[in-house]
Amino acid sequence: MQYARRRLVESQLFGHVKGAFSGAVADSIGFVRAADRGTLLLDEIGDLGASAQGALLRVLQEREVVPVGRAAAQKVDVRFLATTLRPLDIGAGQTQFRSDLFARLSGFVYTMMPLRERREDLGLLIAMLLRKSGVSESDRPRIAPDLGLALLRHGWPLNVRELEQLLLRTWLLADGGLMSGAPRFVAAGEATRSASAAPASRSLSADDEAMHRQVADALAATGGNISAAARALGKGRIQLHRLMKRLGVDARQFKG
To answer: 161, 234 in Cβ contact below 8 A?
Structure first.
């Protein structure tokens, strides 16, 4: 199963030829070759397995791709952008992120501050997110003072995704364009903080403790809805299930 998953990841990135593995019913160029002469975003680079890391390193070094099931390499010209939500565990072990790959990817590193550390951007973000949700100026959206104060005081554990979901919910409940509901929002925030303060019973690493808090925050904010929590965290439902199992998080404790 692990081998099949590894081949699937590599085929998605580097492409494959028909018949290279079970389910390969046609040739595929993969994400890297599809981005030739352009830019490819590698989201959550830390989740990439050891084998795929090695293959990606070869692409960066040689500027060529070897599709799964083919021996001949194909030249590519791609600029790579990589993101990670948590610090990478740099090293040489099977469970660590390769230091040589990190060196190749880190030509320019930008650390984005969490929303709680740039509250001065709230106004601009709110205006942008409301437009993104289809709210126009003719709808006359307004934020009540109590909600505005709650937005400034909130810790924003899920960053901009949490703000976007909150604005959408609040707009749907708005009366005449006035967005309020601070008591409900504050109560949700308190539930989030109490949930994230309860770590898993077994000992966790610092990175896992941080991830435990993020998962707990997402489940608390969504009332234990795993699908909604996965969307808020930018993960797939199955991926979140595996993460919850590893961290010892039970979604039932967050249901109302």
So the answer is: yes
Judge whether residue 194 has pLDDT over 70. no
Instruction: Look up residue 191 and give its two tokens.
Output: 């539930």
Q: 62: closest CA among 80, 77, 52? A: 77
Q: What are phi and psi of 171, to 5 degrees?
A: -65, -40
b/e 148-179 (16+ beta carbons within 10 angstroms → b): bebbeebebbbbebbbbbbbbebbeebeeeeb
The secondary element (H helix, E strand) that includes residue 80 is strand 78-82
Contact by Cβ (8 Å): 68, 17:
yes
DSSP 8-state secondary structure symbol assigned to residue 116: G
The encoded tokens of residue 250 equal 């039970």
CA 155 to chain centre: 19
The long-range contacts involving 129-135, CB below 8 angstroms and separated by at least 24 positions, are: 129/160, 129/163, 129/164, 129/167, 130/167, 130/171, 132/164, 133/164, 133/167, 133/168, 133/171, 135/171
Q: pTM to 2 decimals?
A: 0.58
List pLDDT tens digits, range 25-49: 788 888 999 999 999 999 889 888 8
- For residues 53 and 51, what is the distance between their CA atoms, to the nearest angstrom? 5
92 phi/psi in degrees, rounded to 5: -120, 0
Q: Render pLDDT for 138-147 as a digit per residue (tens, 0 to 9).
A: 888 999 888 8
pLDDT at 187: 47
Residue 15: other Cβ atoms inside 10 A: 23
Which domains does the chain possess?
2-105 (3.40.50.300), 115-254 (no CATH)
